[in-house]
Write a structure and sequence with these properties.
By secondary structure, the protein is α+β, with helices and mostly antiparallel strands. The chain has helices at residues 11-22, 51-57, 113-137, and strands at 30-32, 38-40, 62-69, 74-87, 90-97, 99-100, 103-104, 106-108. It contains 3 helices and 8 strands; from the N terminus they run H-E-E-H-E-E-E-E-E-E-H. Strand 4 and strand 5 (90-97) form a beta hairpin. Residues 25-32 have low confidence and may be disordered.
């Protein structure tokens, strides 16, 4: 099965992907219909279509910012993770860009911050999966 492209997904598709892939299924999310089947309760979606929902969807430990890319002459959203190490001279901490498909992750700014940040969150989750898969292969 091919991986979806966060750049082409709608806000609802991004939210549903986060729910179906990275959310613990909670009992309050499901409602029982009269025929006995359970369906998703849209009013209790764990990732609401708001900026707060987009912020909550961002993986833990990820920092993001909106910046201008001089090469492409556009505004974009970038994600960073904190990396720490220690050597004989001391301890160090640095923010490194999240890499996805071998490149630093950048989501074009479409003037829709909710969708843009959900796209960034989904791409960060996919990047984390990609990183874990590479570790397993080693």
């Amino acid at each position: 099965m091919s991986r979806p492209d966060p750049l082409t997904m709608t806000l609802d598709e991004l939210r549903d992907w986060m729910r179906d892939t990275y959310c613990e299924v909670r009992a309050w999310y499901w409602c029982r219909k009269s025929d006995g089947k359970y369906v998703a309760n849209a009013t209790n979606h764990p990732y609401p279509p708001t900026l707060d929902g987009a912020h909550a969807a961002m993986p833990e430990g990820v920092r993001w910012e909106r910046s201008c890319c001089p090469t492409l002459r556009r505004w974009e959203w970038r994600a960073y993770v904190q990396v720490s190490w220690q050597d004989s001279t001391g301890s160090y901490t640095e923010w490194k860009p999240v890499h996805f498909n071998g490149w630093p992750l950048a989501i074009p700014d479409t003037n829709d911050p909710k969708t843009d940040l959900y796209r960034l969150a989904v791409a960060c989750c996919m990047a984390e999966d990609e990183r874990r898969d590479q570790e397993v292969k080693l």
